[in-house]
């Protein structure tokens, strides 16, 4: 039987500290099919960001396996793009050159002109046409995050990892970027993993939500998000969305040790 594109199977991991091992993950199982988009939620400090580093090959688990496209992950993968809460754009480079930066590190078959054309296309896709020659300090926080997203996609990764990329933005900018994400995924297909503390964000962007337990984390609960055509913000105010959010909130309470009741049906 073929594996999902991303397959985290029975992963256990601990960080070594001065006072001894700090268990973070314990038998974690997360799988994402090709073209799927999974959101991972859970209590603060439960190991969500550790999960992203394992998928990207930036660290190896103590036990268990991480598979990507049928191959066991043993080191950093050029087929993975990453975007973080802090865009970390270089002030001495224009927005266009910031977006092109990964192609100076990751081998590419694109010519210089093809790479620049692709960068301009991505910037236009996220609404930054006309800002290519601006410096990061000349852009708002939301605009810098859009540029960061373009940079993560410039080398056409098969997997895109989003580690709370919208967490520091105001509510209106965040919702605008949620809608842009759907547009981007339609035109630039990828398999996605989103780390977030925002339950509304998880059900708006993902087609499956994984709830991690408290540390050391295992997969406590998983929920499919029904998808019927393009989503808009009105979907977040339907009875179905309210039911999903109530279920996820209850699961978070369980993960935090504030409730032991079973999740509502």
Quick summary:
The protein has 265 residues and is an alpha/beta fold.
Task: Characterise this structure.
There is one protein chain. This protein starts with 5 loop residues before the first strand and ends in a 10-residue tail after the last helix. The model has no long low-confidence stretch (mean pLDDT 89). It contains seven helices and ten strands. It has a domain at 1-77 and 190-265: Rossmann fold (3-Layer(aba) Sandwich). It is α/β, with parallel strands linked by helices. The strands form two sheets. Strands 6-7-8-3-9-10 form a six-stranded mixed beta sheet, with helices on both faces. Strands 2-1-4-5 form a four-stranded antiparallel beta sheet. It has helices spanning 48-55, 95-100, 112-125, 141-153, 171-187, 199-205, 239-255; strands at 6-17, 20-32, 37-41, 63-68, 71-72, 80-84, 159-163, 191-195, 208-212, 219-224. 31% of the residues lie in helices and 24% in strands. The protein is globular, with a radius of gyration of 19 Å. The longest helix has 17 residues, at 171-187.
Q: How would a crystallographer describe the biggest sheet?
A: 6 strands, mixed
Distance between the termini: 31 Å
CATH domain class name of one domain? Alpha Beta
CATH architecture assignment name of one domain: 3-Layer(aba) Sandwich
Please give the radius of gyration in angstroms. 19 Å
**β-strand number:** 10
> Would you give the CATH topology of one domain?
Rossmann fold
Helix content: 25-40%
Cα shape: globular
CATH superfamily of one domain: P-loop containing nucleotide triphosphate hydrolases
What structural category characterises the helix and strand content?
A: alpha/beta
Structure annotation, total helices: 7
Low-confidence stretches: none
Strand order of the largest sheet: 6-7-8-3-9-10
Beta-strand portion reads: 15-25%
User: Helix and strand succession?
Assistant: EEEHEEEHHHEHEHEEH
- Average pLDDT taken over every residue: 89
């Amino acid at each position: 039987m073929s594996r999902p594109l991303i397959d985290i199977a029975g992963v256990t991991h601990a960080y070594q500290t001065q006072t001894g091992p700090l268990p973070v993950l314990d038998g974690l199982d997360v799988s994402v099919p090709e073209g799927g988009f999974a959101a991972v939620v859970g209590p603060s400090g439960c190991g969500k960001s550790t999960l992203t580093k394992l998928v990207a090959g930036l660290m190896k688990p103590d036990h268990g396996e991480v598979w990507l496209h049928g191959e066991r992950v043993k080191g950093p993968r050029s087929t993975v793009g990453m975007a973080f809460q802090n865009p970390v754009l270089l002030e001495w480079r224009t927005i266009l050159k910031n977006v092109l930066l990964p192609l100076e590190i990751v081998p590419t078959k694109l010519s210089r002109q093809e790479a620049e054309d692709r960068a301009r296309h991505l910037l236009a896709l996220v609404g930054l046409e006309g800002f290519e020659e601006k410096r990061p300090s000349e852009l708002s926080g939301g605009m810098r995050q859009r540029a960061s997203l373009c940079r993560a996609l410039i080398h056409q990764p098969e997997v895109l990892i989003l580690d709370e990329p919208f967490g520091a933005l105001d509510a209106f900018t965040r919702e605008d970027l949620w809608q842009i994400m759907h547009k981007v995924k339609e035109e630039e297909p990828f398999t996605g993993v989103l780390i977030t503390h925002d339950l509304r964000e998880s059900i708006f962007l993902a087609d499956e939500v994984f709830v991690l337990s408290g540390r050391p984390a295992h997969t406590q609960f998983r929920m499919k998000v029904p998808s019927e055509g393009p989503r808009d913000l009105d979907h977040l105010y339907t009875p179905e969305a309210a039911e999903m959010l109530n279920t996820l909130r209850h699961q978070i309470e369980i993960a935090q040790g504030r409730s032991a009741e079973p999740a509502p049906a």
